[in-house]
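Dear colleague,

Thank you for sharing your sequence with our group. We've completed the structure prediction you requested, and as agreed, I am returning the results in plain text so they can be pasted directly into your records. Please verify that the sequence below matches your submission; if there's any discrepancy, let me know and we will rerun it promptly.
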Amino acid sequence: MYNIRASYKSLLKYYGNDLWTQRERHIKDIKTIVEFSPSDWLLFFINQRKKRIDYINKLFLSISENDKNENFV
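Please find the predicted structure tokens below.
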């Protein structure tokens, strides 16, 4: 298990003297990386919808094939 706590001295060493400003910059950098544009979200949801439709079609196809096999037995 990792040690999540970090001492203030080690944070000062990592971020420099102006710890709060550096922390705010780091948070802004993370937000710019994480935030997606609306077009990215649209592509993501279209992709997820296509995956769900493909899964449902595959599921129904396998069910219908099982029904056909049971009728011939």
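Summary note from our side: The helical segments are 8-15, 19-34, 38-72.

Kind regards,
the structure core
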